[in-house]
Amino acid sequence: MKRLLLLLALLLLVVTGCGQQSVSTNQSPPEGTGGLQVHFIDVGQADAILVQSDGRNMLVDAGNNGDADLVVDYLKKQGIDKLDVIIGTHPHEDHIGGLDAVIKNFPIGQVYLPKVNHTSKTYKDVLVALKKKQIKATPARGGQNFALGQAQVEIMAPNADKYEELNDYSVVCKITYGQTSFLLTGDAGVRSEEEMLQMGYNLKADVLKVAHHGSHSATGKAFLQAVAPKIAVISVGQPNDYGHPHRETLQKLAARGIKVYQTAQVGTIKMISDGKQIEVKTTR
Ligand SMILES: [Zn+2]
């Protein structure tokens, strides 16, 4: 009995200790040991985003086929030995191109993909890599959520079964850590944005990964107003065939006084949150 009481007291101490830790001070914890880190890896005209919290790792997209080595090397350099979660936002090559290599190179936990039939070789490579490791992807859908260490991840799209545009199948997720939040939108277009607004999700976020490399096919006025970010990230290569980011998008962001970082200009962008503040580090 005495032993049980002692154990209970110890447990209580541990629990309250954890609680104090999460109500952190203004100081940033040392890198990699706490807090939330979001890396927008410079993969040119493509997306690859690493999210780390309390030793848990999530990768959202993995660049083009040609970026496979770059992404795998980047993850290894961060000392990552497991990816707890992978999200492949949608089957376009500039998002899932490097995913098969990532799946081959790391132990993988859960994989989220939109439920869509797509027959490109690149997408098949991903499905084959998953099958070889006997991993069954979870079909992503708005309303799902899970924890990544002390961070919370909410899936906000897709919200319909069928879309004309492959981009609209994009898995959109919001990551919340303490009072800070990040919204990662893949290439979701205006239709998906309207659905997210209709669903009544809390889209508000400090950082917006602007959809579709800054194309005018996304970042509608109402959506931007709901997200109301302080910082925007555009993952883009320069030059590119599409004229991304489009001037309209940049003007909309500028009109709201949002600080914009483009990977084409500043390279890989690393953001560190202590739950209250977000520190931004760029590589050039
Ligand atoms: Zn794209």
Automatic annotation (TrEMBL):
Q: Which residue range or ranges hold the Metallo-beta-lactamase domain?
A: 45-238
The record's annotation in SMART domains points to: Lactamase_B
Keywords in alphabetical order: Signal
Keyword Translocase tagged: no
The stretch of residues making up the signal peptide is 1-20
Q: Which Gene3D superfamilies match?
A: Ribonuclease Z/Hydroxyacylglutathione hydrolase-like
Q: Which residues cross the membrane?
A: none
Record's keyword annotation contains Signal:
yes
An example Pfam family from this entry, by short name, is Lactamase_B
On the tree of life, the source organism's domain of life is Bacteria
Protein name per UniProt? Beta-lactamase domain protein
- Organism equals Desulfotomaculum nigrificans (strain DSM 14880 / VKM B-2319 / CO-1-SRB)
